[in-house]
Give the backbone structure.
Amino acid sequence: MKRLYIDFDGVVLDTIPYLYSALEKSGADVSNEREIRIFYASFDFSTIINDDNILNDSINSINKLIESKRFEISFLTHVNSLDEACRKTEYLRNKFKDITIIIVPKEISKTKMVHSKDAILVDDYSGNLIEWEENGGIAIRFSKEMESHGYRVIDKLDQLLNIFDENGDLI
Ligand SMILES: [Mg+2]
């Protein structure tokens, strides 16, 4: 079984457009790190972390991945606040009893939190994928628009079953 790390925002839930529009509406100066941090600290993440934002049947797709027994699955997600961490954990634990959830502070690379060598990361952010490959991992880009940016790309999580064989090796 291959270790598989699944990003949350822009992969499990389509939270990013709502978050950015809320940030804009808040009147915060988006070029000012401090103002962005203050916005995140007070933002109610339960307004975007819910079933309304399920991305391309992600929950059912993850259940298919579990059933395939090809992967040892964990969630690996950056957070901006403790509220965000709690909401994501509650949401995911409610859907999946046995999947490990790894919360990563925004300022820290995902490669610093887990052993990336020979493990798979599915992520919509190229910055994370670049670091992942640099640290010996296998990077798969998730893109609603199927924009590859030089990576193998999927727009639905169960497409991993077409990319990795029964042993979790690349086909
Ligand atoms: Mg993401």
Q: What stands out?
A: Helices lie at 16-25, 33-42, 58-68, 82-95, 126-134, 160-163. The pocket of magnesium ion is lined by residues 7, 9-11, 123-125 (CB under 6 Å). The chain has six helices and six strands. Strands lie at 2-6, 71-79, 100-105, 120-123, 138-142, 152-154.
